[in-house]
Amino acid sequence: MASFYWPQYQRHTSEDHGIPLFSLFSWMTEYHRALNAGTGTGTWAIFVPPNVKFEVDDVCAEWTFAPNFFNYIHVRAMYGSVADWPAFYQEALTHLKPGGWFEQLEISIQFEFDDGTVKEGVENGEVLDKWSKMFINAGDKFGKTLQTAEKIEA
Questions:
Q1: End-to-end CA, the chain
Q2: 73-116 per-position pLDDT tens digit
Q3: Which of 31, 49, 113, 120 lies in the 20 to 30 Å Cα band around 96?
Q4: CB burial class (10 A; 0-12, 13-18, 19+) of residue 111?
Q5: Are the C-beta atoms of 145 and 139 separated by less than 8 Å?
Q6: How far apart are CA 3 and CA 35, in angstroms?
């Protein structure tokens, strides 16, 4: 088993596979500073290690941390939250240490099914298609796209 930064979580494993939860962090044996951008209110946190603290800040403004500060920056579900993605990425990369890890996960709010049942004119699928388009249009109007997953460039 790999060493973990949060040893109290080593005992929690998946019953199906014996894979430690938080295995994402297993490669980071020298894990010192991490940023979880877009964590929300933090009310989801049940177990908080003593070396973790929450800070409320605006990731869309100039960051107040020193350059090369973080070993790991995690961004998830920030669609509809960022008006200027290139500026956000510049801030993130400026504050990521050389050799650090940046990870982002975004989802699409456009409903789609493999069998094509979510499209205009198809019974029961049309409502979901209209909902998606309405929200995408609203995001475009207020200047914060909800199509981050579709528009992001690797």
A1: 32
A2: 989 889 999 999 999 999 999 999 999 999 998 999 988 878 77
A3: 49
A4: middle
A5: yes
A6: 21
From CA 39, how far away is CA 54, in angstroms rounded?
Answer: 9
Q: Tell me: the pLDDT tens digits for 28-66? A: 555 678 888 887 666 766 667 777 777 778 999 999 999
Burial environment of residue 63 by CB neighbours within 10 A (0 to 12, 13 to 18, 19 or more): buried
CA dihedral (82, 85, 90, 96) in degrees, to 10, reads 60
Q: How far apart are CA 60 and CA 113, in angstroms?
A: 33
Residue reference for tokens 């991490």: 34
**What is d(CA 116, CA 134) in angstroms, rounded to the nearest whole number?**
19
Q: Report the candidate in 14, 151, 30 with the shortest Cα–Cα distance to residue 80.
A: 151
Distance CA 23, CA 107 (A): 22
pTM of the model: 0.72
| Tokens, residue 110 | 């456009």
